[in-house]
């Protein structure tokens, strides 16, 4: 099976500080991978390198076993189907919900664009809000709208940065169902999140980062039982 994202010996430095330290990991197509760990562990930095926002000092990231993301621009990476939803919702508040999703299709939406948008709105549960202005949506709905804007482009790698931060329990529940609905054999989903119950519900495997390295990789159930993980993260 093809590996969707292969991280090899990745080191990222900010001045003299090592945010990622010789990190290696592999994320398969079809998988939902939770990336967890204490504040400053390097989770966001990892997403930044995969999406071309930050540059590596050493090592590389391969997409689809062929494309070296560590040498590509942000735009090239996005065009190749590696997409990210940032933590803070950044929808276009003065446009309708439907038009926001359409923006996710890019400059050439194609004849089936409107149908793709309609299907996407259905998937994220915003069909009844399609003609409202995005600025009127609740925080949770904005998160789902932004996920729709990213997913409508049919990404092969989907990165979600803290998708349930600030959401109610019910919104978190719906987001978990949504992530499960978005998984597909041709897509890898990477989720950075501090809500461990949410991570457990959606992830096939979790990677626990600590000081820029992998402390643990496996099921969330085993992570909860791992002495080192409890010590640096879960026990706090
Ligand atoms: N642009 C930057 N310049 C300097 N230091 C940075 C920069 N970006 C991140 N860092 C530092 O790198 C370390 C790792 O940050 P990162 O945001 O990846 O951690 P994280 O695991 O996502 O943490 P959190 O859970 O708090 O979001 C932190 O100590 C952070 O202060």
Write a structural description.
The chain is an alpha/beta fold and about 240 residues long. It has a single domain, classed as Rossmann fold (3-Layer(aba) Sandwich). It has helices at about 45-50, 75-80, 95-105, 115-125, 140-150, 170-180, 195-200, 220-225, 225-235, and strands spanning about 5-15, 15-30, 30-35, 60-65, 65-70, 80-85, 155-160, 190, 205-210, 215-220. The strands form 2 sheets. The protein has a 6-stranded mixed β-sheet with strand order 6-7-8-3-9-10, with helices on both faces. A 4-stranded antiparallel β-sheet has the order 2-1-4-5, with helices on one face. The longest helix has 14 residues, at about 170-180. The relative contact order is 0.19. Adenosine-5'-triphosphate (ATP) binds next to strand 2 and helix 1. This is ABC transporter ATP-binding protein.
Identify the strand order in the major beta sheet: 6-7-8-3-9-10
Cα distance, first to last residue? 38 Å
Percent of residues in helices comes to 25-40%
What would CATH call the homologous superfamily?
P-loop containing nucleotide triphosphate hydrolases
Instruction: Tell me the fraction of residues in β-strands, as a range.
Output: 25-35%
Roughly what is the average pLDDT, rounded to an integer?
94
The CATH class: Alpha Beta
CATH architecture: 3-Layer(aba) Sandwich
Named CATH topology: Rossmann fold
Coarse structural class: alpha/beta
How many helical stretches? 9
DSSP, total strands: 10
GO molecular function: ATP binding; ATP hydrolysis activity
Keywords: ATP-binding, Nucleotide-binding, Transport
Protein name: ABC transporter ATP-binding protein
Domain ABC transporter: 5-236
């Amino acid at each position: 099976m093809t590996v969707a994202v292969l991280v090899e010996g990745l080191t990222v430095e900010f001045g003299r500080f090592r945010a990622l330290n010789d990190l290696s990991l592999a994320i398969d197509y079809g998988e939902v991978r939770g990336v967890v760990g204490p504040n400053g562990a390097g989770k966001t930095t990892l997403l930044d390198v995969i999406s071309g926002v930050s540059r590596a000092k050493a090592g590389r990231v391969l997409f689809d076993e062929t494309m070296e993301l560590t040498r590509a621009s942000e735009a090239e990476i996005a065009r190749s189907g590696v997409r990210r939803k940032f933590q803070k919702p950044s929808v276009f508040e003065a446009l309708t919900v439907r038009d926001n999703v359409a923006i996710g299709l890019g400059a050439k939406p194609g004849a089936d664009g409107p149908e793709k948008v309609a299907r996407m709105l259905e998937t994220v549960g915003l069909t009844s809000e399609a003609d409202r202005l995005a600025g009127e949506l609740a925080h949770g709905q904005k998160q789902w709208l932004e996920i729709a804007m990213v997913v409508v482009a049919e990404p092969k790698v989907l990165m979600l940065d803290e998708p349930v931060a600030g959401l109610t329990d019910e919104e978190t529940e719906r987001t978990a169902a949504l992530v499960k609905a978005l998984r597909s054999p041709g897509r890898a989903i990477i989720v950075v999140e501090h809500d461990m119950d949410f991570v457990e519900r959606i992830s096939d495997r979790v990677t626990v980062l600590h000081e820029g390295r992998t402390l643990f990789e496996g099921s969330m159930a085993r992570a909860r039982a791992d002495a080192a993980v409890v010590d640096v993260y879960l026990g706090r």
